[in-house]
Amino acid sequence: IDQYLLKTGTLSTSENAYPIMPMKFSVSPVVRVAVECQKPSDLPKLIAALKLLSKSDQCLKVFIDDTSGQNIIAGAGELHLETSINDLREFLGENIPFVTSKPVVGFMETVTTKGPVCLSKSANKHNRLYVCSEPLDDGLAKDIEMGIINNSKESQKIMVDKYNWDPISVKKIWGFGPNLKGSNLLVDMTHGIQYLNEIKDSVQAGFNWFTSEGVICGEPLYGVRMNITDVVLHSDTIHRGAGMISPTARRVFYAAQMTASPRLLEPIYLVEIQATQDVLGQIYGLLSRKRGYVVYEEAKEGVPVSIIKAHLPV
To answer: Is 118 helix (H, G, I), strand (E, B) or coil?
Structure first.
């Protein structure tokens, strides 16, 4: 059983038993470190220990970077990562030394305005894709991440009623990205295009590729809607294969992002501090040095204690 359960699972003798829901956290694993063995022969033991570490901590994320091939541990903060690395040392023992990189904070990319229609031609010049991008409502992006919005009919009704989407556009959503479940949408806005369904998988592959690595600095995208406004395709199937369409789709998505005022999104903590009146000046000074800003302050009645809520970059 252990090899099939990644985080949580429910064991029951009844076929009708309802599974226990996994925990949901208010923080995301945004701080990353790379882990590697000093001896290459110890790599299988390190991977086994990382799997054990991932199962022991619900908020921790362990994965392999596709570009560098490194084993990455992602946590909610530096302290969280420090305790996780100490646990990893205990799992491995003193005989298997390993090294860790410096903590790196993952950013995300987005767009802030609706951009113009962009064109990209395939390498053989026989196919053309016309795409424009626009930002999603912040609430819609959060609902997609939480799993409230998906391809179901109930989700389509929510998008029409709550977010004022066009009923026709809702039915022509081609997919989510990255990894088919992210907070970015690909929408078909065309009418009467021949052979369009034949290139749907290729365009979705290009969209998934693009949303995993944005144009600014190769970070994942968040809250972006890509609208396919027009398509021109060659009548011969051999001239519109996946090798022609996927790179073309990726290029036109890059262009649509660049022309729609792209921005970087930085992860921000919401911190709550309780302190006495005599140290408030030092707390404000520390927050300003860390690029934080106070959003709420209240003095408790009857005691010389203040509650401060602030946004603080990770």
So the answer is: strand
16-71: pLDDT as tens digits? 888 887 777 767 788 899 999 888 888 888 888 998 888 888 888 898 887 778 89
* Distance (Å, whole) CA 112 – CA 215: 15
- Global pTM value: 0.77
Are the beta carbons of 226 and 70 closer than 8 angstroms?
Answer: no
Q: In this structure, what are the phi and psi dihedrals at residue 313, rounded to the nearest 5 degrees?
A: -60, 140
Query: Looking up tokens 């969209």, which residue turns up?
Result: 207
Handedness of CA 61, 64, 65, 71 (dihedral sign): positive
Could you tell me if residue 307 is left (phi over 0), alpha (psi between -120 and 50 degrees) or otherwise beta? beta
Distance between CA 181 and CA 85 in Å, rounded? 29
CA dist., res. 156 & res. 171, Å (int): 7
Residue in this structure with the two tokens 């022609």, named with its chain if needed: 244
Residue 23 tokens read as 């925990």
